[in-house]
């Protein structure tokens, strides 16, 4: 089975703010978050292609160096991340991907993914035949708040993980799971949640602190 990349990049970056959408904010080396996230996939794995889901219109895309890369394709995203990923899967199938192929879904806002972590994920999926995600064990003690700044409970962090991307699944199974999720009342916030709801096994593979999702401008200082 072949391996494809899918990068949802149709968000507006509301929490980040600024003049341009978050995925087009620049790293210190001059690359956009989107460019660096796509390159992390292309450099860390052997892919048949990468589909990037964009908002429409997107005046920034044509100026991206990756827009001229033969391995990189683009399609229209949707209103929420789950729609963008779903549409990306449909576009990959249009481009010759098959249901039995694997797909790596990776946020456009995670430029710090290393080839080592990516290879860990791919090896785990190929060996087990099951889907998996990169994730980090929770390090801090967790508190539940009452909405007014007071603690109501302390939670055990045992067995708790923070989900990262990439998240890797058989393409057809993920499409099916997202279809079911999109017809329900609440949307999954990652691909694993859709697969879990569909009853599929999803494995946890050790991620890395550097693979953080840029959410606010100050996050750039950690890259
Ligand atoms: N995304 C997408 N389509 C959407 C919403 C989000 O493809 N309708 C993408 C984003 O572009 C990003 C990834 O999903 O690459 C993770 O989303 P997030 O970090 O939440 O980015 P934004 O939604 O853009 O940011 P915010 O929630 O602050 O608006
Ligand atoms: Mg968002």
UniProtKB/TrEMBL annotation:
<dbReference type="GO" id="GO:0050518">
    <property type="term" value="F:2-C-methyl-D-erythritol 4-phosphate cytidylyltransferase activity"/>
</dbReference>
<protein>
    <recommendedName>
        <fullName>2-C-methyl-D-erythritol 4-phosphate cytidylyltransferase</fullName>
        <ecNumber>2.7.7.60</ecNumber>
    </recommendedName>
</protein>
<comment type="pathway">
    <text>Isoprenoid biosynthesis; isopentenyl diphosphate biosynthesis via DXP pathway; isopentenyl diphosphate from 1-deoxy-D-xylulose 5-phosphate: step 2/6.</text>
</comment>
<feature type="site" description="Positions MEP for the nucleophilic attack">
    <location>
        <position position="213"/>
    </location>
</feature>
<keyword id="KW-0548">Nucleotidyltransferase</keyword>
<feature type="site" description="Transition state stabilizer">
    <location>
        <position position="15"/>
    </location>
</feature>
<dbReference type="Pfam" id="PF01128">
    <property type="entry name" value="IspD"/>
</dbReference>
<keyword id="KW-0808">Transferase</keyword>
<comment type="similarity">
    <text>Belongs to the IspD/TarI cytidylyltransferase family. IspD subfamily.</text>
</comment>
<feature type="site" description="Transition state stabilizer">
    <location>
        <position position="22"/>
    </location>
</feature>
<dbReference type="InterPro" id="IPR050088">
    <property type="entry name" value="IspD/TarI_cytidylyltransf_bact"/>
</dbReference>
<dbReference type="InterPro" id="IPR034683">
    <property type="entry name" value="IspD/TarI"/>
</dbReference>
<dbReference type="InterPro" id="IPR018294">
    <property type="entry name" value="ISPD_synthase_CS"/>
</dbReference>
<dbReference type="InterPro" id="IPR029044">
    <property type="entry name" value="Nucleotide-diphossugar_trans"/>
</dbReference>
<feature type="site" description="Positions MEP for the nucleophilic attack">
    <location>
        <position position="157"/>
    </location>
</feature>
<keyword id="KW-0414">Isoprene biosynthesis</keyword>
<dbReference type="InterPro" id="IPR001228">
    <property type="entry name" value="IspD"/>
</dbReference>
<comment type="function">
    <text>Catalyzes the formation of 4-diphosphocytidyl-2-C-methyl-D-erythritol from CTP and 2-C-methyl-D-erythritol 4-phosphate (MEP).</text>
</comment>
């Amino acid at each position: 089975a072949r391996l494809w990349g899918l990068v949802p990049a149709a968000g507006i970056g509301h929490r980040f703010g600024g003049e341009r959408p978050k995925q087009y904010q620049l790293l210190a080396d001059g690359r956009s978050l989107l460019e660096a996230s796509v390159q992390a996939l292309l450099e860390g794995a052997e892919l048949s292609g990468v589909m990037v889901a964009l908002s429409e219109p997107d005046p920034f895309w044509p100026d991206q160096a990756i827009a001229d890369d033969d391995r990189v394709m683009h399609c229209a995203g949707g209103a929420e991340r789950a729609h963008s990923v779903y549409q990306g899967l449909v576009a990959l199938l249009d481009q010759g991907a098959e249901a039995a192929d694997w797909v790596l879904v990776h946020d456009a806002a995670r430029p710090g993914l290393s080839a080592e972590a990516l290879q860990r994920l791919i090896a785990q999926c190929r060996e087990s035949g099951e889907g998996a995600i990169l994730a980090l064990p929770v390090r801090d003690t967790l508190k539940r708040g009452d909405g007014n700044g007071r603690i109501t409970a302390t939670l055990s962090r045992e067995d708790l993980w923070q989900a990262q991307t990439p998240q890797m699944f058989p393409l057809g199974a993920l499409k099916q799971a997202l279809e079911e999720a999109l017809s329900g009342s609440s949307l999954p916030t990652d691909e694993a949640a859709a697969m879990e709801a569909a009853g599929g096994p999803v494995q946890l593979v050790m991620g890395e602190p550097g693979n953080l999702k840029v959410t606010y401008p100050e996050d750039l200082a950690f890259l």
